[in-house]
Each structure stands twice: as C-alpha cells, then as structure tokens.
Design goal:
Elements (H helix, E strand, L loop, with lengths): L1 E6 L8 H14 L3 E4 L17 H11 L4 E2 L4 E2 L5 H14 L6 E4 L4 H4 L9 H19 L4 E4 L4 E5 L13 E7 L3 H6 L4 E6 L8 H12 L9 E6 L7 H10 L4 E6 L6 H9 L6
Parallel strand pairs: 1-2, 1-11, 2-3, 4-5, 5-8, 8-9, 9-10, 10-11
Antiparallel strand pairs: 6-7
Helix pairs in contact: 1-2, 1-9, 3-5
Length: 280
C-alpha cells in the first residue's frame, strides 16, 4: 500500500507558503503522494476562510518536487470547462514529468461549490456533465482530431497538442459516495476509486472496502492496475499500523491521511508529515 496526504486547500492551507512547504516536506519524508482538495468555498455563508486554487498550488509543488505523485482529490468536473481541464492536466503532467493523478467527482457540497455561483446543483445534471467531461478529456488527450456533440457540451473538430507524458493516458480516480452505485460503475471504467460514505463524514471501513471491490469487479474483471483509495485521520494515532494493515488486507492500494486545521495547527501537521508514512 502506498501513502499520500490528503490536504485541505483552505484555512491554514489557503496560505500558498504552507501548502508548498508541507508538500516538499512530504516528499523529503518519503510519502508517495500529495493530493489537495478542490473547493471554491466549502462553507457558505459562514465561515469565510482563505482558499487557495489547488491547480496553481499543484503547479508550484510540481516545480519544487521530483518524485511524489500529485493531483486534485477531487476536482468537481461538472463546474469546470472540460477543454480547459484538458489543457491544465496535460500541462501539469509535463511540468511534473508524468506524476499527475486526476481525481474527479460530482463535487460536494453542491450549494457552496455550485449553487451560490448560479450553477445547477442537481445530482442528475452533474452526473451527465461528469460523464461528458470524461469523454472530452480522453478525446483531447489523444492528440488526434476530436469532436463532441452532447447534451451539455459541443466541440467542433479540434486537435490538442502536446499529448500527456503518461500513456495511454493520465490516470483518473473516480470519487463516489457508498452505497450509491452509479459512481462506482463509472469508476470501474477508470483507474481507481476514492470512496466516501453517503451523507456521512465518517471514514469508509475495511469491511466496506471489501464490498466496494466486489461490486467494481462486476464491471471490471481485472483489478490488477486499479487503485482502491482509503482516507482518514489515522497516521500518528494509537494502533495506526494495525488499522492500516486492516485496510491493506481489505484491498486498499493507497491510504491518504487527511491534513487539516481540525486535526491540529500547521506546525503540528508539518511535524506529523515530517515523520514519514508508517512502515507496514
């Protein structure tokens, strides 16, 4: 199992200096990945917090690091222009020399990330936009002439260059709220799943991961190159190795430990990261 940090992009980490410093500390300490959240507000109307654009932050991190994998976890594609995301992802893949992993989902909470800006908050519309956006991304990443005429997006024939460093494509992890099944069928067509629980902030438990893997295998026979991603606030707590071994036994290929102000000050979180990932 590989280890990354899942870091908020607001409050203390809305400060670019803190964001970049902790990413560099993570690489130095031996972590495998650095994955920021992608929110516009998160809370609405209160509290009002500093927010860093994670894409700008990730570009700075890519230029300051050499090894660590990176990417947004997750970016809400339904509030993005997919052709703009295609440009951004290929550019970031080149800046990082092929280290980008793209996490995608519907976006949550819908009121703060969509509604306040006049965007449609409905699950069905956002799911339709997400599916179309994925088709457009893959088409534009191909470097071949591509056109798209869908319900929400329309592209005349266009060719995007360069192609990504990573081939056959930049890895995509899909987010989903268990036990709602649609997102997990979508993720089976991608390269990984980042599950959370429906209407809950509680972490997905190892037993639930076994059910998730079994469900995805209905639609994807071979999980050899498919990532199953767990997350929570475990590293540095009592029995962390025992807990993480249970996730590994349940089939998780990555563990993302959450770094946030709720858990401690920036200095405390940097110290935790500097100790490196646990040894299982």
């Amino acid at each position: 199992m590989k280890f990354g940090i899942s870091i908020i992009n607001f409050a203390s980490y809305g400060n670019p200096k803190h964001f970049i410093e902790i990413a560099c500390e993570a690489e130095k300490a031996g972590w495998d990945g650095f994955f920021p959240w992608d929110h516009m507000l998160l809370f609405y109307p209160d509290p009002v917090l500093p927010v860093l654009d994670p894409w700008i932050g990730l570009t700075a991190v890519a230029a300051r690091t050499q090894r660590i994998r990176l990417g947004p976890m997750i970016t809400p594609l339904p509030r993005r222009r997919p052709w703009k995301v295609a440009r951004e992802t290929v550019s970031l893949d080149h800046v990082s020399n092929g280290r980008l992993i793209l996490g995608v989902g519907l976006g949550n909470p819908p009121d703060a990330d969509f509604g306040v800006f006049g965007e449609d908050t409905g699950w069905k519309v956002r799911a339709e936009k997400l599916d179309e956006s994925l088709e457009i991304l893959m088409g534009l990443w191909s470097g071949k002439p591509f056109r798209h005429q869908g319900k929400h997006y329309h592209l005349d024939e266009v060719t995007f260059l360069p192609t990504p460093v990573q081939q056959p494509r930049i890895p995509i992890w899909g987010a989903g709220a268990w036990p709602r099944k649609g997102a997990f069928r979508r993720a089976a067509r991608l390269d990984g799943i980042v599950p959370m629980l429906w209407k809950s902030w509680d972490p997905v438990q190892p037993k639930q991961f076994k059910h998730i893997r079994a469900y995805i295998q209905r639609y994807r026979k071979d999980l050899t190159d498919f990532d199953v991603v767990g997350s929570g606030e475990v590293v540095g707590t009592e029995n962390d190795v025992e807990i993480l071994n249970a996730y590994a036994d349940a089939g998780c290929t990555w563990w993302l430990d959450i770094i946030s102000d709720r858990r401690g000050s920036y200095e405390e979180m940097r110290e935790l990261v500097s100790k490196g990932p646990p040894k299982l």
